[in-house]
Amino acid sequence: MYQRLGHSAPLFFEHIFGDSAGYLVTLTGQQARLQRPDARANELEGIRQKSFRYPDKAGRAADYLLGEAQHQRDAYVGVHLFCKPGTRKAEYAAPTVQSLWLDEDDGSYPELGPQPTAVVSSSRKRRHLYWQLTHAVSVEWAVEMNRRVAIWAGGDVGKAGLATVLRVPGTANFKRHPQVDLVAMEITHSGSWEPEVMDQAIPELSEPTTSSPKAESYDGPALELAEFLSGVDIIGEVPDGLGKKLAVVCPWLSEHTGGDRTGTYVGQRAGGGLWFYCNHEHCQGRTWAEFRRASLGDRRGRKIAIETPPQTMTRGGS
Question: I need a surface site. Which of 50, 147, 248, 262 has the fewest CB within 10 A?
Fold first, then answer.
């Protein structure tokens, strides 16, 4: 029943990857409930991850994913390319992307926003939206924009980052088995968007208020941010009118959906106050003091271990 949709996967790849080159990563698995009725909803078993050189092997990747769907296996693809095969770790993501993405989840993208260039219906009520860009942008910029879009739409912010996988048009969604939803795509022909236009049209993220120190004068002891960064992987500096702000890899990376390395910040206000904030749900409410302890480790100098996520997982995608 998928043959009539199978041709859409190569078109989908071309739409989101453009003329980029790298490795396309696929991930497939079977709903555990097909074998174990008492399994958790959307728990995948027998997970397989494969890489295909893009664009050379795009057709082969599409055929493989269609074949997986015909064997009642849910099929996903990384929404950006990678620099090496056999991995979807964010650190190996290609440095640029040519589209933005949104897992709308239970939210609703505002009609007044820039129209998506492609809409993938992962079920009757769930959509993944894509915005093809006129030129490549850095992955860091894209992830920040994805977060802004997700928050504005009330979508899944956890799917805004790197290492994200979403469903492939032309396959099927077995999450609600015995109901089976075909994954379909519509190209809207709205035309590619200038990144600058997207930046201006999407509301900016508000400054974090739950974990960051207040902006008023700091009267504590003199401390330097650098003292706490020796064991931290720094992604880069981010413009901030209130002081110094750095994008870093979160000490609790193993708790992030898909091992996403983005969306975590530390900084120092102009008045001296230090702060920490992570956009991920598992880190909500964590404070500077907790970050300090995690980054410095114990007195013997050991740092917090980062664990690899298990291979049997529950997918948040629709």
Answer: 50
The tokens 């480790």 sit on which residue?
A: 297
Q: What is the pLDDT of residues 72-126, one digit of tens each?
A: 999 999 999 999 999 988 889 999 999 999 999 999 999 999 999 999 999 989 9
Together in a domain, 32 and 143: yes
pTM, two decimals, is 0.68
Structure tokens at 120: 């993938």
Contact present, 264 and 247 (Cβ < 8 Å): yes
Report, in angstroms and rounded to the nearest whole number, the Rg of the chain calculated over CA atoms.
21
Instruction: Please report, in angstroms and rounded to a whole number, the separation of the first and last CA atoms in the chain.
Output: 20
Which pair of tokens denotes residue 123?
């079920």
Measured CA distances, 229 to 249, 283, 300 (Å): 11, 19, 17
Phi/psi at 31 (5° precision): -60, 125
Question: Residue 6 — pLDDT band, cuts 50, 70, 90?
Answer: low
Q: Which of 166, 183, 203 is the last residue of a domain?
A: 203
Count of helix runs (H) and strand runs (E) in the chain: 5, 15
Contact, 84 vs 54, CB < 8 A?
no
Domain range for 285 is: 206-318
DSSP string for residues in 183-205: -EEEE----PBPHHHHHHHSPPP
pLDDT tens string 242-269 = 788 888 889 888 877 667 777 888 888 8
| Residue that has been written with the tokens 């997982």 in this structure | 313
Q: How far is CA 124 from the centre of its chain?
A: 23
Token duo for residue 156: 């899944």
- Residue 291's Cβ-side half-sphere holds a number of Cα atoms within 13 Å equal to 28
Query: Which is it for the CA torsion 33, 38, 43, 44, positive or negative?
Result: negative
